[in-house]
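Protein: PTS system beta-glucosides-specific IIC component
Species: Paenibacillus pabuli
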Amino acid sequence: MNNKDLAKNILELVGGEQNISGLTHCATRLRFVLKDDAKADLKTLDQLEGVLKAQNSGGQIQVVIGAKVDAVYGEVKSLTSDQFGGVDESADRSGPKKKRNPVNVVLETIAGIFTPVLPALVGCGMIKCVATVIAALGWLEGSGFLVIVNMIGDLIFYFLPFFLAVSAAHKFKTNPYLAVALAAGLMHPTILNAAAQIADTGVNTIDFLGMPILLMKYSSSVIPIILAVWIMSYVYRFVDQFIPKFLRVLLTPMVVLFIMIPLELIVLGPIGSYVGDWLTQGINYLFSTAGVLAGLILGFFKPIMVMFGMHYALMPIQVQQVASLGSTVLLPAALAANLAQAGAAFGVFVLTKSKTMKSAAGSSGFTALFGITEPAIYGVTLRYKRPFFAGCAAAGLVGGFYSLVHASATAISLPGILALGTYTADRYIYVVIGSVAAIVLGFVFTLMAGIKEDADGAQPKQQATGAVDSIQTAAATGVTAEQDSPQTSASSSDMLIVSPMTGEIRPISEVEDQAFAQELMGKGIAIVPTEGKVYAPFDGIVEALYRTKHAIGLKAANGVEILIHIGVDTVSLKGKYFNAHIEQGQSIKAGDLLVEFDPEGITSAGYNTITSIVVTNMQQYGDVLTTTSSGPVRESEALIKLIP
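Structure follows.
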């Protein structure tokens, strides 16, 4: 299908020209704003030849094309200009005015707030697990060491409002320091100490201009601070517009705090606390009255929730349950789901004939054992479909079993084998039995269901809806690969691509953009930059420089093509915080400064700076490897290795 035919098909499948209110494109995809999203046939779009993925995200219909997106965009523009007078390219930037599904908005908001906090949340949870194991074994009882370890494990749970204040401020695009001040209002000793002494003093309110401030404990609370920061985002803008510019730096923060602190203590805090308690009690009631069924349903659907990002909706409830009751009944089902997907991945490892898929299934299976299932789900089990649902079935059975034996988790941590110490049940052996059963059942059900692939080990094209998380680790000290099979021989033509920036390496699967995370754009690696500079990794030419300067397409002298995409959805910044030192078509030398950007500015605007570096013409190579999968990397250090 040529570009013009592809454009015609895309236009038809988004509901026709009359359904389009806005169109633009970034480095990888067409971005449509439609008058009626329901008229878009996403399923057919996703299977269209030339389309890597179609999805509804951020109020847009995104059609991932890849390297030729600019050419297809030109054809779409030509067709729409001929037939109904053109498309307003800026219309999609007025996205907030478009009516969106409230459920999607809530889920996206929760995910956006909790995702940045997860490292601290999981880290403290795992330390809490260590403390629990030490205490259970009777070691170091009463020692200062155990006291400090317990303190570290409790840090984020006690001061959670501060963590959520920062991430909520970024999500709602308001001042993060004033948001922290709101958290301080909830956590100030004036409130916490008075709340702790209610039983002794009998005083449960403080009078504020005739209005009662309820004395409540807000440590570990979730909803009050999120509500407060959300409301503040509107109050701040409202106040700021009425204060003269030369006085804003003095008066705006003062007025905002004078409004918000009483408002959150009198209204928002109590409302948020009551809602959190109701949710906690409601979930506990559900598990106490229909425990087995509730556990079975949650266990079965947990991997499906992960696919759609809906699992983040459970995070506030889990945190609230641990804070209020000391444990949560939701995490055992997540543990069952993760271990079952690990077992399913191991089943694929046994069944598949593909060496690449064996590597992916084995590595992602072990990753799932430790609580990270996205590589196993997107890269292995969902790719063949049957193993994915085999894992879901196993998780449902074990989730029901866990509910039957009243299993719960005493800390928020990655649901995996390292966190088993934080789980309890009627008898602890039931936790172990359930964990082993989830792995074994996921494995056995996958063997029973089987997989469909060609004689050479390749899965049918129509089933390749995911992407194999097959970025492998190799210690690359030179340009010669070692011989590991009769089909793969050492070659002096192997090529090393050096890092174009300095930062922390992350697996490409961690990028919050499925076009990159699922390797639809090509294999590669991600870097969280610590410096705002991008350098040329080789001699070649600049094939593409997008007007927003957030993405660069490069072609090396020997034909290797790579895409460097700075941040996630940074196209919406319209070039703000970016400064290009090159032009499209320009020749470059290794080490040339290509683009400078402001990581802090991008982050403060609410965008993730994680940068994807992928080989877009990977089909021309036998394999694309990375020299490491994690850790720091400096500009010009070896990063990607291409095997002919």
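Remarks: Residues 82-98, 458-492 have pLDDT under 50 and may be disordered.
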